[in-house]
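Worked example

This section walks through a single chain of length 299. The input is the sequence exactly as stored; nothing has been trimmed or padded.
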Amino acid sequence: MKPAYAFKVSPVSHYTQVKSDETGECVKTKKQIKGKVESNRSGFFEKVVLNPKSVTQLLLFPDPRPLVERLGLDFFRRAPQCAGVYLMRDSADVVLYVGKAKNLRKRLSSYRVANPDRLRKRHLRLLRAVARIQLEECVNEQTALEREAELLLALRPRFNRAGTWLAPPQFVAWKVTEAGLEFALFPESPKGWQAHGPLKSGAVLLRASMVRLAWCGVHRVGYSQMPKGWWHRIPGAPVTVHRRETGLEVLEETSARLVAACHGQVEEFRTWIRERTIHFNQPFDIAARDLDLERLERV
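Given that input, the structure is written out below as tokens.
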């Protein structure tokens, strides 16, 4: 009879639990197995060779829950179901991480389990270091977003990466050329361009949304047909929505409507874009277009 095998997946904290008929005890660590461990150096598992007569069942230990152990399950159950920000502090009361949520209870519930197979090492280090979580309720998600930005700049927590430094103000600018509708970012309002700003943050994302919406308005085709990389990110260098066979009057109209939208006429721009893309029937194209329109509306 071939020996039975029990496998332990990568993390050191995960061990296969094996119950023996003879002793009723569970094998939990390599030291208890003594010499029956074969390490696979090319992979992320260890093979434990067991006597098939002594194995009755294989069980896995539950994932670690460090925050539940420190704060208690009631903390997560009683968290408010509203928008707000949360500050994770260590034992010295130093803020380690600041986050915002549309629903605090739902967001905090994602921190209850520290699964080492699914979470990054940086995230796991954070959860192990947190001793207390401070909650601040906000009126709505936008207020929570503003409060988060304020705290990030003031505290600069070491586990936050984005938003801890104030970016230099930038202008989102565009102009019509023979090649098409060109978009760029400038530290100052450039001559010969239409521009919106200065923006302390969000200029890169706003320009990306404007480029994609201009593409829809000019070419009347979906997001899947845009140049490669336009959905995930827009490069920092100037970007042009090429005219192809489109007349200059369409480019001029698109530019003028963007100017009006930046001066408060967002609803008119929304209506125009939807008329130009009324034939969109793919859920992705519709959702992506509406997401970009929402970002423009926040201007």
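What to look for: The first helix runs from residue 30 to 33.
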